[in-house]
UniProtKB/TrEMBL annotation:
Protein name: Pentatricopeptide repeat-containing protein At5g59200, chloroplastic
GO molecular function terms noted in the UniProt entry: RNA binding; zinc ion binding
Superkingdom as given in the UniProt entry: Eukaryota
PPR repeats: 99-133, 231-265, 301-331, 332-366
Gene: LOC107491561
Length: 640
DNA sequence: TAGCGAATAC
């Protein structure tokens, strides 16, 4: 039995006129003859005020026109728009024989209210009541299927539309592409796309987004290139897709190309571009984009400013982020989240927690992202007890069930300060669904830092049993066993990784000098100034050793002798980037380096000394957080 | 004589 009951339909949906001629369907047009135009125009004038609408509704009842299908239609729509879904539902159910327009309006209402199952249920009920569907109502129910997501229902609707001999309406087709895309059925999405007679810019944008969602970058580009002219939305979808797939520079190139073609970017475009900038950590470029936004008369709404705050904090300029935040007239939970997460990223734990408290004072309810930021702040600041207090308050005070990320934060909080048994017990107490490889990896890293092999081995065992191990997990396991001197285990995980065809993500650091981003891999020899870079590095090695630096050779993993290990450490990508920064910028200029992986202990110790010797501020963003090095110290206070 | 389209941050 199907989930949905629909009458067979003989009209052609593609032409979209609903002829109401089918013999089995009840024809509910009798009330349609009357139309209370006075009430309708009154409703339209007062549609923003619930009280007024209610009183006009009362007037219609007095006049006896409350069953006029046009009046009911208008009322249901307005009630839904005013978020009064109860009014709308009640009215709908008191209406005799609601027609397809009325069903559509309430289904839409349920969708905008987030009640997707209710929307799908109502559509099924429409079938039971033999009301003929049309392309509008099908589009509406498919919207619910997309958002739920409900693949089976969506397929059933698709099947029924096809079986009924209808041509495929274009809006229906667009929603089907979206549905299949969202439900990992990209091939089906493509089949629907290929059936659309006119594959215009909108259809292509939907298809592109589906491809991008599944990492099919080249396929998306092909769809994009199939268009003669692309509009702002299509370009934006392109930039967004590239950025989401980690193709940051390509995304920025597209942004430039868009300008060359004379297509104007809008707020959404900039939000995508800012995301690329923030991931790259390119501060100069970001500042330029920010200025350019003013030139383009961008509306600085909350999402845009949130993106700017995020961009400045991720590019290392937390002060600018703070200024933007302070200037915001209206701050919502997302604005606070951006700022709290930014402060946490910079290890400004006290400030992050203060801001969280201020937010509560302002009566703004925190959401699950707020707690990720706040707990991260606790972790970076070594604030164990406060972390626990806040973690517990999530459910008791704010009614938010902790997710896996929050549990991860707690494990981190305990791990960083060396309370490893407690961290492990915390994991043990959680259900398996709350434990993931990331969490175990982080704890194993803490075990390694605190040299606790006992807990470490238990964690390592659990991690190696994890089904979703990525290159980071293998490397972590290998590093852990190497740090214990158990080379055979270390080698075993390396081998497993190679055999599984899993590639190690190479360490990569970048630094922006004169608006150009210079990237360095570990031991990189490709840079045109490599000679001077390595010369500087040698000098730094010598000077830092005089200051007491001694290479922590156990962090280098391979089973090689100490001299070789020292060499492997000496050319870590962040050191190359810093050396290049030192030779290519004026004295006292702050150096900002972005690294894709976590910084190692050895580089951390050495950079502290480099900052001291050269009297430079050095800001390093690693995968986890910011490190501000100055005069021999790091802002992370060696917790990271 | 009524109602559908694509891209947004933490």
């Amino acid at each position: 039995m199907g989930i949905l009951v629909l009458p067979s339909v003989t009209t052609n949906l593609y032409n979209s006129s609903n002829s109401y001629t089918h013999s089995k369907a009840k024809i509910n047009n009798d009330q349609n003859i009357r139309r209370d135009t006075d009430i309708i125009s009154l409703l339209q004038q007062n549609r923003k005020n619930l009280k007024h609408v209610e009183s006009i509704h009362g007037r219609a009842i007095k006049k006896g026109t409350e069953q006029d299908s046009f009046v009911v239609f208008e009322l249901v729509r307005i009630y839904c728009k005013l978020k009064s879904i109860d009014h709308a539902t009640k009215l709908f159910h008191s209406t005799h024989n609601p027609n397809v327009y009325l069903y559509t309006s309430l289904i839409d209402g349920f969708v905008s209210f987030g009640s997707y199952s209710a929307a799908i249920g109502l559509y099924g009920q429409m079938g039971h009541n033999n009301v003929l569907p049309d392309s509008y109502v099908v589009t509406s129910v498919l919207k619910a299927c997309v958002l739920q997501p409900a693949l089976r229902c969506g397929r059933e609707v698709h099947g029924q539309v096809l079986k009924s001999g209808l041509g495929l309406d274009r809006s229906v087709a667009l929603k089907l592409i979206e549905l299949y895309g969202k439900c990992d059925e990209v091939e089906d999405a493509r089949k629907v796309f290929d059936k659309i007679p006119e594959r215009d810019v909108v259809a292509r944008t939907v298809m592109m987004a589906s491809y991008f969602d599944h990492g099919m970058v080249e396929e998306a580009i092909e769809v994009f290139n199939g268009l003669k002219t692309q509009d702002t939305v299509c370009w934006t979808a392109m930039i967004d897709g590239l950025v989401r797939n980690g193709e940051l520079n390509r995304g920025l190139e597209m942004f430039r190309e868009m300008q060359v073609k004379g297509v104007e970017p809008n707020e959404v475009t900039f939000v995508c571009v800012l995301s690329a900038c923030s991931q790259l950590g390119a501060l100069e470029l970001s500042r330029w984009i920010h200025m350019y936004m003013h030139k383009c008369n961008v509306k600085f709404n909350q999402i845009v400013v949130g993106a700017l705050i995020n961009m400045y904090s991720r590019c290392g300029d937390i002060d600018e982020a703070q200024l933007l935040f302070d200037d915001m007239k209206v701050k919502d939970v997302s604005s606070y989240n951006s700022m709290i997460c930014g402060l946490a990223l910079h290890g400004m734990s006290t400030e992050a927690i203060e801001l969280f408290r201020e937010m509560l004072k302002q009566g703004i309810s925190p959401n699950s992202i707020t707690f990720v930021g706040v707990l991260n702040a606790c972790s970076h600041g070594g604030l164990v007890e406060l972390g626990f207090e806040i973690f517990q308050s999530m459910e008791t005070l704010h009614g938010i069930k902790p997710h896996i990320e929050h549990h991860g934060c707690m494990v981190d909080i305990l791990g960083r300060v060396g309370r490893l048994e407690e961290a492990y017990n915390f994991i043990e107490r959680m259900g398996a669904q709350h434990v993931d490889d990331k969490m175990l990896c982080a704890l194993l890293s803490s075990c390694k830092i605190h040299r606790n092999s006992e807990v470490g081995e238990q964690v390592a065992k659990r991690l190696s049993e994890c089904s979703k191990m990525d290159s980071g997990s293998y490397i972590m396991l290998s590093n852990f066993y190497a740090s214990l001197g158990r080379w055979n285990f270390a080698a075993e995980f390396r081998e497993k990784m190679e055999k599984g065809g899993i590639l190690k993500e190479p360490g990569c650091s970048s630094i922006e000098v004169n608006n150009v981003i210079h990237e360095f891999l570990s031991g990189d020899l490709k840079h045109h100034e490599r000679r001077s870079i390595y010369q500087k590095l040698e000098e730094l090695n010598y000077l830092t050793k005089l200051e007491g630096y001694s290479p922590a050779t156990e962090v280098a993993l391979h089973d090689i002798d100490d001299k070789q290990k020292e060499l492997a450490l000496a050319v870590h990508s962040e050191r190359l980037a810093i050396s290049y920064g030192l030779i290519s910028t004026e004295p006292h200029t702050t150096l900002r380096v972005v690294k894709n992986l976590r910084i190692c202990d050895d580089c951390h110790a050495m950079i502290k000394l480099i900052a001291k010797i050269t009297s430079r501020k050095i800001v390093v963003r690693d995968r986890n957080r910011f490190h501000h090095f100055e005069n021999g110290h790091c802002s992370c206070k060696d917790y990271w």
